[in-house]
Specification:
Number of strands: 32
CATH architecture of the largest domain: 2-Layer Sandwich
Number of domains: 3
Structural class: alpha+beta
Low-confidence stretches: none
Radius of gyration: 30 Å
Mean pLDDT: 91
Helix content: 25-40%
RNA sequence: CGGGGCGUAGCUCAGCCUGGCUAGAGCGCUUGGUUUGGGACCAAGAUGUCGUAGGUUCAAAUCCUAUCGCCCCGACCA
């Protein structure tokens, strides 16, 4: 490709509305342009990168025995109504109407469509298992798109769905897919790892996120320094001793604590450790009020609480609800003598972290403004519905898996996710098969996704310097950039000749044939980040030499014009 | 949805507080010339519904109101 014929609008300065490195560099290197919030044009260079990622994904999926299909982007509402998600999915689902006023949505994910296809075409255990995938544009009307291709509203995603006759078969296949995913990211030159994750609103019973470690990532991950434990902070556990089960000998006393609301204020006023305080948090859910209890030195993890309650949604109770429940201002709630139900809101459930189980002589709110209780004991003075892990992991917590290592908290970019779905969609959409005994059963499903654009963005996050992008070879839009320096006719003749040679040898080459000054061409070349540069200058050419530069290391060497093809071929393999 | 910020040339931004003649700079772009191995120089030039609508005023990029768009933080999120 000749630079002069392409469209590579590089920018000298950082665009004002880009925040993270990959977004800035994608704009500056002329890979993408924003059309509207969360939607982008893919320019020639950007599209080539996208195609590279897709190619690697296709090769690995096909190698794992998956079949590529292509499903519609505009989906009839009926399918989503059948699964129940038309009502439940919320505003993220972009809904449109056709000319006859029929409802459709722009597909944010394709469980319904694929399950509909499979239920119509597959009837027998003999035809299972199957894994069907597509690479397609998706649309999610995100509340807050950001960071360029990292979180767009319109984005390219590979999504795959597998159908099995048994959970065991799904389990086996799940491992195959997880490993295929790890291989894909490895081939993309990315350091990715599989992280245990929450299944979120998609449902299912087991999930891993495929995460590329990066400080700018939106996912927070706990990892063990000693063993291979890696989990999303949303679900990560830590090994914790349960509260000492001393006898309940203390007596409950009310103490005056004027305007002391926070754990720290009360603990220091009463001279007790925060771990002896019972932090009482009140949540509103679709199933009534939840009172969550946790030791004062720990942070509550809302994902864990949501999972523990089985609630569809959960928000912190507002001031009015807290007053109704406790009869006190916010800041003085406690588990002792709470009503079992609040008029107009619903039932009250108490759920406690394991740090509360067996706690004695504890301090907590008195449900009376400006008062706390001391000497409170679990089981005697209050009782929780259950005692489970509700705490957020912290750096330095003990690993729950090996019990030895300390947990570290790191950030990462989620580039893929795999789920064991089970029968959620096959039951809703009646995707059933006949087993060996002629018995009808719902198919067992798995689902597997990769954000294509996000993977490209993650590659830039991990590979850049002050001059621009440094593409890993497998994702690079071109293998080599050929740069002619100066207007000399010998130079341009030689460059043309080498350009033709490179192409003849199947090497992907971008030929900067522009008439610009050398400095401009070098700066653009470094910004665009093609791994190798072949530079043709007047002086060198007189000695039959060409300069070869490696973008990543800055290393340069002079090679004979005839040897450049061999050298590049060697570097490519 | 809550909080904050921004919208002036292709890009980055100044001007606005304290209204005043013809709206500016740098970069980019066009033409000519000199240059040519790390974002050159000289000269000449083109480019704007000052986001949009309404209002106040003799006079609005500037003040007021509404509205749209974009960015950030939070809530949210296969």
């Amino acid at each position: 490709m000749k630079y002069s014929k392409s469209l590579i609008p590089t920018l000298r300065e950082d665009p004002a509305d880009a925040e993270c490195v990959s977004h800035k560099l994608m704009l500056r290197a002329g890979l993408i342009r924003q059309v509207t919030r969360g939607s982008y044009d893919y320019l020639p260079l950007g599209l080539r990168v996208i195609r590279k990622v897709e190619k690697i994904v296709r090769e690995e999926m096909d190698a794992a025995g998956c079949q590529e299909v292509l499903l519609p982007i505009v989906i009839p509402a009926e399918l989503w109504q059948e699964s129940g998600r038309w009502e439940r999915y919320g505003k993220e689902l972009l809904r449109v109407k056709d000319r006859s006023n029929r409802d459709f949505c722009i597909g944010p994910t394709h469980e319904e469509v694929i399950t509909d296809l499979v239920r119509r075409e597959i009837k027998s255990y003999r035809d299972l298992p199957k894994n069907l995938y597509q690479i397609n544009t998706k649309y999610r009307d995100e509340v807050r798109p950001r960071f360029g291709l990292m979180r767009g509203r319109e984005f390219i995603m590979k999504d795959g769905y597998s159908f099995h006759t048994s959970v065991e078969d799904l389990d086996r296949h799940y491992e195959v897919m997880k490993n295929a995913y790890l291989k894909i990211f490895q081939r993309c030159g990315l350091d990715a790892r599989a992280v245990e994750a929450d299944t979120g609103s998609i449902g299912g019973y087991s999930s891993h996120e495929l995460v590329v470690l990066a400080d700018t990532g939106e996912s927070i991950i706990a990892t063990c320094g000693k063993c291979d434990y890696t989990a999303s902070a949303e679900i990560a556990a830590s090994a914790r001793p349960s509260a000492k089960k001393s006898k309940a000998s203390s007596t409950v006393k009310e103490v005056h604590t004027p305007s002391l609301k926070t754990v720290e204020e009360v603990a220091s006023y009463l001279k007790v450790e925060p771990s002896q305080m019972i932090k009482t948090l009140i949540y509103l859910t679709d199933k009534g009020l939840i009172v969550a209890l946790i030791a004062g030195n720990l942070e509550l993890n809302e994902v864990k609480l949501t999972n523990a309650t089985g609630a569809a949604f959960l928000t912190m109770a507002d001031e009015a609800a807290v007053k109704k429940l406790t009869g006190a201002e916010v800041g003085f709630a406690g588990p002792v003598s709470l009503p079992a139900e609040v008029q107009g809101i619903g039932k009250v459930r108490i759920i406690a972290d394991i740090s509360i189980e067996g706690i004695s002589n504890a301090v907590t709110g008195a449900n009376k403004t400006d008062y706390h209780l001391t000497g409170v004991c679990d089981a005697r003075d209050f009782k929780a519905e259950k005692y489970i892990d509700l705490s957020s992991v912290k750096k330095g917590d003990v690993c729950p898996k090996c019990g030895k290592g300390k947990l570290d908290i790191v950030r990462g970019i989620e580039v893929g996710q795999v789920f064991k779905l089970g029968t959620k969609y096959s039951e809703a959409l009646k995707a059933v098969f006949l087993d060996e005994n002629g018995k009808e059963k719902p198919m067992i499903m798995g689902t597997y996704g990769i954000g294509i654009g996000r993977t490209a963005a993650a590659a830039i996050e991990q590979n850049n310097d002050e001059n621009g992008i440094i593409w890993p070879l497998p994702l690079a839009p071109f293998h080599v950039e050929l740069i002619s320096v100066g207007e000399d006719s010998k130079v341009s003749e030689t460059a043309e000749k080498i350009y033709a040679e490179l192409m003849k040898n199947g090497i992907e080459v971008l030929f900067d044939d522009r008439a610009g000054r050398p400095g401009v061409k070098f700066a653009d070349a470094d910004l665009i980040g093609i791994p190798y540069q072949a530079i043709i200058g007047k002086k060198a050419i007189e000695q039959g030499k060409i300069e070869f530069k490696i973008r990543k290391t800055g290393e340069r060497k002079m090679v004979g014009a005839k040897d450049i093809i061999d050298l590049i071929n060697k570097e490519l393999h």
